[in-house]
Amino acid sequence: TSKGNIELKKLDGKDGTTPVEGAVFSLAKLKEGGNTDTADDYVDTGVTATTNAAGIARFADLADGIYEVRELSAPNGYIVDKSQYARVEIENNKGHDCGTSHDFDITSDAGDTIHYNVWDYKPAIQKRVTMGERAATPGKNVEFALKVTVPQNITSLSKFNIEDVLEDMAP
To answer: 46: Cβ–Cβ under 8 A, 6 or more apart, which residues?
Structure first.
């Protein structure tokens, strides 16, 4: 039987060139008689791939069929839009794009491997401490305000966590 490959290159969405290590992708396969445009017709294969230091994740030696790739998790500081996907048909040792969402860009489908660039974005977070000229006192409350701008590509975000680290605030 013929085999094909799907290769993903994860990049920082702000500069478009910095590789992102540690993003995890899942692989699902279209069930028999399923509709390629219906997310519920894809069955999780249990196979995942994680990006390396070069931002590359690869699903190798895939049998003929139609597959869907989604990002499951992103490295610390990045936000995953789980509504984003790439759908690929593997046939006769070659991958063909069957449709993608806006964060998956096909870069090549030559040979036995179909290549995509995938973008991840960080929210812009601004912190303003509102304690005036006073120094922070251990055990006392310090008020601060956060302004978070969520990247425009995020369409299905319901919540995310912000972790703050108390720095030395002594005068």
So the answer is: none
